[in-house]
Structures are given as structure tokens and as C-alpha cells.
Amino acid sequence: MVPSTGTPEGPGRMADMGKKKPPPPLPAPLPGLVDAHTHLDGCRATTPEAVRELVDRAASVGVQRVVTVACDLDQARYVVEASRWDDRVFAAVALHPTDAHQLEVDGAREELERLASDPRCVAIGETGLDWYWLGKRDGVATPEQQHASFGWHIDLAKRLGKPLMIHNREADADIIADLDRFGAPETVIFHCFSGDAAMARECVDRGYVLSFSGTVTFSNAVQLQEAARLVPDDQLLVETDAPYLTPHPHRGAPNESYCVPYTANYLADLRGIAPERLAEMTTATADRVFGEAFAKS
Q1: CA–CA gap between residue 89 and residue 70 (Å, rounded)
Q2: Looking at per-residue confidence, does 99 or 2 come out higher?
Q3: From CA 257, how far away is CA 234, in angstroms rounded?
Q4: What dihedral angle (degrees, nearest 10) is formed by the CA atoms of 184, 190, 191, 196?
Q5: Which phi and psi (to 5°) does residue 116 adopt?
Q6: Which of 147, 152, 157, 228 is placed for a possible disulfide with 164 were both Cys, Cβ 3.0 to 4.6 Å?
Q7: Which of 173, 180, 236 minimizes the C-alpha distance to 208?
Q8: Residue 23: cis peptide before it, omega within 30 degrees of 0
Q9: What is the DSSP letter of 215?
Q10: Percent of the chain beyond pLDDT 70?
């Protein structure tokens, strides 16, 4: 998910990200981190060698594991394949809400379920609702298609016993209503959380996990920073959503999993704790929500 303060996200647009600025320098290592949501193909890591190089770079600054996430059918195939190229890579499979109409393609549901059932797939995501792009871009799934796809993915998460990874853009009330209407699975992750403190409290009270990306470091993200302060230790994750949303002071440069320490350090300072503690608690949350195979890796 990319909130309105960030760069537009969507399948087919990843390769054009971050061409104008050089990549950020490697941050100081902060051992024990997890990138809970990234797009390796968007970072041009589309071969086993490129994936290995990317995760080696992340490991050099303490990012031990990454979850690479699908937005469409092609990416769903890719993320599962990429997760087999390196033991530090895991997959999440779903249709992005703007591509929810792909669920109507013959055989799509069966293929998505097969891919999501793979032991290297640790979440059903990213799915949800995106009202931002309605009327702004051609080919965006209608609200009806998005609601139907979200409901199907919710059911899939429950049937497979895997966490649901949510993309929510300008759809707070409708996301909550659909989770109530369809019945939320045991574990719900709001990836790249972009809400205010009131939305954060609503999610926390329901037991949902909130994952924060580089947007929390932006100077105009005051409400998001208020939200990040109130999330309990065991309901917090950190992510890049790379190649998008590179943390301050490198906003606009290409993002990658090695940039997680920038956001983790910012969150630690925001919450008044040591960065090492932030790494420990977010990784403990990742181990719990993504399951035994992830935790043992």
C-alpha cells in the first residue's frame, strides 16, 4: 500500500521507480531486523543471482529475512519462485485491490489458492480496498470488484490459516466494515499503515498488527507518527514496501530492504526506546504472525 504522501504503486510501474536519485548509502547495521513487506521484482531482483545480492546487502546491515509480496497473477507466480531461490526470502500472495478484476480470469482463483498454499507463502496479501485510484487511472477494479476480491481473500486466509496482509488507501471505514462483514481471520496485518491515531486504536483494539514503512519518517506525517507511538510492542512490524517510500532523508531515491534500519531507528526514537529493542520486538512479532517456518529460518 502507498498512502497519499507516497509514490503511486501498481503492477507494471515498478521498473520506473527511483531513477532520478542515487540509492541511499548503507545505514549503520542494526542486527535482527525483518523487512515485513517488499517487492523484490520492483527492485529489479528477478533472477536468483540478483535476489541473493539484494538479500546479502540487506543482511550486511542486519536485515535477516524479507517477505516479498504479490500484486497480480504474474507477481504471485514470481514471489513463490523467488522464495525458493534464497532461504531468507518468503512470499505473500494475493491480488492488489486495483487489480481485483483479475480474480474473474478463468482459473485465477485456483492458481492463487495453489500458490498461497505453498509452504514458502507466509501471508495472503496484499489485498484490501483502494479508493484513491478510482477515476484517476484506467483499468482500476471497480468498488464492487474490490469488495468481492477482498472477501474472497479473507476467506482464503481463514481456510489456509495464514495472516491477511491488507492494503488500505483512503478506505478506513470500508475496510473495517468488510472485516466485520466477512469475518476477520485470526491474524490481520495492516501493511504500510497510513491512518491516524483513532484508526490505529481501532485496529489495535481488534488485535490487528500494524506495519510501518518509510512514510512514518516524512516531515508531513504527524498523524501517522502519533499512531506509531501508541501501537503495543507485540502488534508492531517494520517494512520498506520497496521500491517505494524510501525513508527520510532519502525520500525519492530507490528503496530496498537494506533501508529498514533507517525506519527502525526513527521508530525507536519516536517511541523512546533503544533501536536494538525495536528490532527485537518487531522481529518477535514477525516470527509469531508469519509462522513456524518463518521463525525457524
Answers
A1: 13
A2: 99
A3: 22
A4: 160
A5: -70, -25
A6: 157
A7: 236
A8: no
A9: G
A10: 94
Helix orientation angle between 222-230 and 260-271, rounded to the nearest 10 degrees: 70
Residue entry with cell 471505514:
173
Dump pLDDT digits (tens) for 63-104.
999 999 999 999 999 999 999 999 999 999 999 999 999 999
Q: Which of 127, 159, 125, 124 is nearest to 146 (CA)?
A: 127
State how far the Cα of 121 lies from the Cα of 41, in Å rounded to an integer: 16
Is 34 in contact with 238 (CB distance < 8 Å)? yes
Percent of the chain with pLDDT over 90: 93
Only one residue has cell 478484476, namely 101
Per residue in 30-53, pLDDT tens? 999 999 999 999 999 999 999 999
Cα–Cα distance between 229 and 225 in angstroms, integer?
A: 6
Residue 44's Cβ-count burial label (10 Å; 0-12, 13-18, 19+) is: middle
What pLDDT, on the 0 to 100 scale, is given for residue 20? 74
Whether the Cβ atoms of residue 247 and residue 12 lie closer than 8 Å to each other: no
Amino acid at 122: V
User: Model pTM greater than 0.90?
Assistant: yes
Q: With beta carbons less than 8 A apart as the criterion, state whether 187 and 163 touch.
A: yes
CA dihedral angle for residue 256, residue 6, residue 185, residue 146, rounded to 10 degrees: -120
Q: What are phi and psi of 219, to 5 degrees?
A: -65, -25
Which residues lie closer than 8 Å to 56 by C-beta, 6 or more apart? Answer: none
Block residue for cell numbers 484506467: 138
User: Which residues, including other chains, have CB under 8 Å from residue 104's CB and lie 6 or more apart?
Assistant: 145
SS (H, E, C) 235-263: HEEECCCCCCCCCCCCCCCCCCHHHHHHH
Task: Kindly state the DSSP code that residue 134 receives in the 8-state scheme.
Answer: T
